[in-house]
Amino acid sequence: MINVRTDLAVEAREIYKEQFKREADGVVVVEEEKDDIKITTVNVKNEEGARMIGKVMGTYITIDIPEFTHYDGEIMDNVAHVLAESLKKLIDIEHTKTALVVGLGNWNVTPDALGPQVVEKIMVTRHLKSVMPDAIDDSVRPVCALAPGVLGITGIETGEVIKGVVDRIKPSIVVCIDALASRNTRRVNRTIQIGNTGISPGAGVGNKRMEISEKTLGIPVIAIGVPTVVDAATIVSDAMDLVLDEMINQASSGGEFYNMLKSIDKNEKGQLIRTLLNPHVGDLMVTPKEVDIVIDSVSKIISSGLNLALQPNLDMEEITKFMN
């Protein structure tokens, strides 16, 4: 497949389909819409499909956030409810079992602070079972939360911190939230991906750490991610593609210049751009200027959706009352 940096399964599938003009074998895609919110489910069924699109076998649910969501409370609530319904399909444990929510990322860097900000808004209840047994009945799931920081701050692998906590408190499921990278600027801060394949912290910026998955922790791991950055080389490559397409449209069909433009390999062009940019800008990642507002609103959406999914016996009003 085309060598483009993306953490989104829906984009990996689109890239493969664009290149080969067909769906990848072993990849099943279902698209639906609810309350004007598009939901795309990509199921990677086998190793062949995983190899073709470069994603681990499993289920990836992508929710497209409508435009202007960050400034409209009603739309934010709608997205949160859609997120909750999508999460419930993957959280397959009894409501009495303990869940651990982990906010990955660096709280000092806004585009990477999504995870820690979500954790601040989670309905944490595990300790109340012993502290306030009369006020918390069995309808409330025990939930605990953790923001372990990053290796550069703590000197400890994030995966090691989580593994130690899991071994100690023995939750039945782990839900990780992290910032991702997209290959398309239109998806930055506009897409939520949910997957049951785990996650590698730092993967979005090409800095993979210890994998956090069922294989490493021994329990199911749900990953929630939002692309907050895009690779600068990808932006340059996309801009050049637009220029080339326009030049092809303007060139005389069948002419020497036309044939030369048509023969340009976009994959090789992308590699060339990355090689040329690297000495000057390094591994530059770009994020929109309004990222502070976006991270704040997206963290509210994800925390609300996650609270609803983890507490199926409570509604939003009851959860809000508890949090206040």
UniProtKB/TrEMBL annotation:
Gene3D superfamilies linked: HybD-like
Reactions the enzyme catalyzes: Endopeptidase action with P4 Glu or Asp, P1 preferably Glu > Asp, P1' hydrophobic and P2' Ala
Matching InterPro entries: Pept_HybD-like_dom_sf, Peptidase_A25
GO biological process: proteolysis; spore germination
Entry keyword set: Hydrolase, Protease, Zymogen
PTM info: Autoproteolytically processed. The inactive tetrameric zymogen termed p46 autoprocesses to a smaller form termed p41, which is active only during spore germination.
GO molecular function term, any single one: metalloendopeptidase activity
Propiece residues: 1-7
EC number(s) reported in the record: 3.4.24.78
UniProt-listed Pfam families: Peptidase_A25
Family according to the record: Belongs to the peptidase A25 family.
Record text on subunit structure and interactions: Homotetramer.
Described function: Initiates the rapid degradation of small, acid-soluble proteins during spore germination.
Protein name: Germination protease
Native source organism of the sequence: Clostridium polyendosporum
